[in-house]
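SAMPLE LOG
Freezer: B-3
Tube label: C17
Construct: single chain, 281 aa
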Amino acid sequence: MNGAQLGEFPDDSEQLGPYVSGLRRRALQASELSAVRTFSDQFLLKFLRARDIDVELSLKLLLNYQRWRRESPEISTCLSPSSVLGLLNTTYHTVLPQRDRTGSRWIPKDWSAFQVFRVSLMTSEIISMEKETQRQGLKAIFDLQGWSLGHALQINPSLARKISSVLSDSFPLKVRGIHLVNEPMFFRPVFAMIRPFLPDKIRQRIHMHGADFHDTLSDFFSPSVLPPEYGGEGPGIERACQDWTNQLLQSEMLLQQIASHPTGDIALTPEDSLISEERGE
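STRUCTURE (predicted):
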C-alpha cells in the first residue's frame, strides 16, 4: 500500500498510528522544537498527508512550517479576517464550492502585498484542516486583470521568497496547479523574482493562460467547478467570494488561536470543519 492510499484512512485508523507516532517522536527530538511538549494527531496528519505519509519528508515540512512562522511574524501572527474586510469585500478572494481556489482584484493603493498574502494564508490554514483537501490538494487560479506597475513594485525579493516557501516546502498543502489568467507584461518581472525559489515540480505546475483562458482552463477544470466568468457552470464569482468571506469571518477566533499559538497546533472541534466533505473534484 502506497502513501497516497494510506492517506485515505480516517485519522483514528490503526494503519496511520505508527506514522503519526513516528513523526511525533522525530519532531520532539528536533533541537529547534525543544520547547514543544507534544503535537496532536490531527496536526501531524496534515503534514503526513501533504507528503503522502512519508515521515522524513513530513518532518522536513513540519520544521519548515515552524521556521516560516517564526521568520514571518508580520504575516503569521495576524490572521484576522475582520482586519482586511475591505479587501475581502472587493471580490478579491474565494474558495470555490468544488474545492478549487480563485482570486480576483487587488487595489495596491488601498491594500499592501503583505495584507493580500495574509488573506491567502488565512484561507490556507482553514482548508488545510479539511481531510479531503489534505488528501487531494488544491489548484489555484489567479486573475491578474488590471495588474499594473503599482502591483509589481510591492513584490520585493523578500516577499517573493516567503510566497515561494509557502507554495513549495513550508505549508501542509499539496499544490496541484497554479493557473494565471489575464497576466500583463508587468507580471513578468514579478514571476522572474519568484521562479528561482520554486522547485522544478512546482514550476511545471504553473500555467499561464493569458486572455484566452476560457479555451484553456477547461483542460484543467470541469465546467461544474468554474464560475461563469471563467467559462464554467458553477456559482458566480461575486456570490462565491461573499460566501467565502462569511466563512472566514466565522473562523475569526479559530484563526487568531492559530496565529497566537507557538506551533499553530490547536484543538479542533467538529464545528471547526468549514468545508463540506461532499464537494466534488
